[in-house]
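Input (structure):
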């Protein structure tokens, strides 16, 4: 599975590996070939924002694209929310 995350802002280096692991976990039960996963991890320059961290991913499964995003106070929290939301979207895709 081809997974690529770009980062913008003050995103910790370990966050990219954490995001890739989260996506792999969310897609663990997918039997269909996953062509690509493209994502971004962003930390806003203004730390006074309530949710300055943003995690986004676009996953292609059997030619269908799923777009998921999550904002949170920290990058780690945003990645956790991204994984949860991607798991739900994949479950809906499998059910349809």
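Output (sequence):
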């Amino acid at each position: 599975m081809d997974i690529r995350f770009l980062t913008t802002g003050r995103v910790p280096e370990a966050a990219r590996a954490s995001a890739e692991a989260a996506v792999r976990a969310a897609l663990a039960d997918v039997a269909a070939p996953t062509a690509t996963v493209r994502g971004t991890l962003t930390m806003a320059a203004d730390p006074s924002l309530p949710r300055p961290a943003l995690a986004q991913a676009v996953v292609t499964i059997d030619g269908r694209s799923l777009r998921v995003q999550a904002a949170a106070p920290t990058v780690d929290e945003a990645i956790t929310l991204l994984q949860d939301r991607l798991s739900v979207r994949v479950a809906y895709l499998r059910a349809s």
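Notes: The chain has one domain: 2-95. The chain has a mean pLDDT of 93.
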